[in-house]
């Protein structure tokens, strides 16, 4: 149970897929974990529960940062919660596990919903995701892992390609079919025009990607 300030992303199916992925990974005892794009901090709390030695959460939204700090206090978990853009607040540090549920919903100006940083991933949904794929491998310790979730229509091949291109061993480890929520229903015509989803499509497949940095280069 977490509290949530208005405008902060409500934990949902993509969040719960990553909670399960953290459990299955598993988180090595004492691991240094980074939850980037942390929202309420629910994934950071899950990592602490799974035996992490230290957990850092990063979000660009002030409200999300305050919410995650409140949730850490509520659950009496010593999270370090930082505000900033992706991995910038932890530049120079390395982590054994990075978990990320980035904003990935594609948005166009003629869409009938206003964009929110909580879910908007730019014109094709990959604005934050591509930057994450480029930056995360450099912040992982040897043998460290990245767990990231996004819908299949965002381009699973592209995510795998970017991570493999950075020397990571990457694969899809979990997936599920999810009915569109209100935002995806409102955006469906725009996404269909862009060729990202099919006409009449009302569900999306969410995928969890596991990428491991080799122990030796
Ligand atoms: C889809 S929500 C995920 C929240 C939470 N991790 C969860 O799974 O419930 C994405 C989060 O990314 C944050 N965000 C968006 N752009 C960001 C950026 N450039 N750097 C850090 N956080 C960002 C948003 O504020 C939002 O809290």
From TrEMBL:
Gene3D superfamilies: Vaccinia Virus protein VP39. Residues 14-151 form the Methyltransferase small domain. The keyword Nucleotide-binding does not apply. GO terms for biological process: methylation. Keywords: Methyltransferase, S-adenosyl-L-methionine, Transferase. It comes from the Bacteria. GO terms for molecular function: methyltransferase activity. InterPro entries: DNA_methylase_N6_adenine_CS, Euk-Arch_PrmC-MTase, PrmC-related, SAM-dependent_MTases_sf, Small_mtfrase_dom. NCBIfam families: hemK_rel_arch. Belongs to the eukaryotic/archaeal PrmC-related family. This is Methyltransferase.
């Amino acid at each position: 149970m977490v509290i949530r300030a208005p405008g902060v992303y409500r934990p949902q199916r993509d969040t719960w897929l990553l909670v399960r992925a953290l459990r299955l990974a598993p988180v090595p005892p004492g691991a240094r974990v980074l939850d980037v794009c942390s929202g309420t901090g629910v994934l950071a709390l899950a990592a602490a529960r799974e035996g992490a030695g230290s957990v850092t959460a990063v979000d660009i939204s002030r409200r999300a940062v305050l919410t995650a700090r409140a949730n850490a206090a509520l659950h009496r978990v010593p999270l370090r919660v930082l505000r900033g853009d992706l991995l910038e607040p932890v530049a120079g540090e390395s982590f054994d596990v990075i978990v990320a549920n980035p904003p990935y919903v594609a948005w166009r100006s003629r869409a009938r919903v206003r964009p929110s940083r909580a879910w908007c991933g730019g014109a094709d949904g990959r604005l934050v995701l591509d930057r994450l794929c480029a930056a995360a491998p450099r912040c992982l310790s040897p043998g460290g892992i990245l767990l990231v979730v996004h819908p299949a229509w965002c381009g699973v091949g592209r995510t795998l390609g970017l991570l493999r291109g950075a020397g990571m061993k990457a694969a899809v480890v979990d997936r599920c079919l999810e009915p569109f929520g209100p935002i995806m229903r409102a955006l469906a015509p725009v996404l269909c025009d862009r060729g990202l989803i099919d006409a009449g499509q009302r569900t999306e497949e969410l995928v969890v990607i596991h990428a491991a940095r080799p122990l030796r280069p």
